[in-house]
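call fold target=Phosphatase
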Amino acid sequence: MDIVIDSHTHTVASGHAYSTIIENALAAKHKQLKLLCTTDHAPQMPGAPHYWHFNNQRILPRFLHGVGILRGVEANTLNVQGEIDLPASTDQHLDWVIASFHEPVFKPATEADHTEALLNVIKSSRVDVLGHLGNPNYPFDIEKVLRCAKEFNVAIEVNNTSLTGKSRKGSDVRCSTIVEVGKAVGVYFTTGSDAHFCEEIARLDLAIDLLKQHGVDEEKVLTTSTSRFLNFLLLRGKQEIPEFETLYE
């Protein structure tokens, strides 16, 4: 399975990451990626950048070191209503929106609360992908949420960092179940390194292995093709990116 996009990466702006967008792009080039999603933490995460960091991403070149740059965010799911921590006015400036649970922002609650929050964030139409769902602190009704994600064309992330055992410990078993159910339901998957340092860019080996283990069709893995990924964004209602014209083919 050839991955050409890293859909979840952080820069020093996130407050607890250690590389710049330039360093990340250079690492992506060396690792032969075609596209890089830059997805710093949204404002409610301690140490995260403010509103203007995300609204001003329009100044970023569409290519850095020959790698296409997708302007994004890892937003925080705030509550059971499925709200995220950026105003709707920011959406027009973003190509790619991840929604994730983070303990400092959404205190772990009941399975019912987590399920309701995920269903509502999917239905909000503001997010393109659900991030690191394997976190055992946030159990939810997997089949119910994934069927909703399929209906609303929201992708499911397979987060490589969650599979390393170094972060969100205990995620590996839940991630396996999520991929198994996701395959049966027919969701779209993405693969994200969740890199917080440039050397982690494109580190996706564990995510790839898990998808292979469950026999997920490559056509359901958005990050295997620039065309697949960018056309998914069109399916989500995003505007075509003129600079990436040849990458839609």
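return ok
The beta strands are 5-6, 35-38, 63-64, 67-76, 96-100, 129-130, 155-159, 189-192. Residues 171-185 form the longest helix (15 residues).
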